[in-house]
Amino acid sequence: MSSHSDAIKFAYWVPNVSGGLVISNIEQRTGWDIDYNRKLAQIAEANGFDYALSQIRFTAGYGADNQHESVSFSHALLAATTTLKVIAAILPGPWNPALAAKQIATINH
Prior knowledge:
The chain has 109 residues and is of the alpha/beta class. It is 32% helix and 11% strand.
């Protein structure tokens, strides 16, 4: 018999960068602003998604002219939802580990 913790978990990639989620010459219809993403997080949560994965791409150019910083952007998504868990990507080189831990621990409260 399967326990609740064995249930399939669903996640989606947070479109927190301009230009869409993939490299393409096709016009992208996905928004990347905070209001769009708050609404998307609420829709995902209401439809049973467990996780949102916030990307970071500022060290590799792939056509995204603009993007939001992953950790603080994730904080905004958490404030707009109640059960959604957000996984924020962090580049370890530019981030002081102690500062990153403190920032994420603060968000966790």
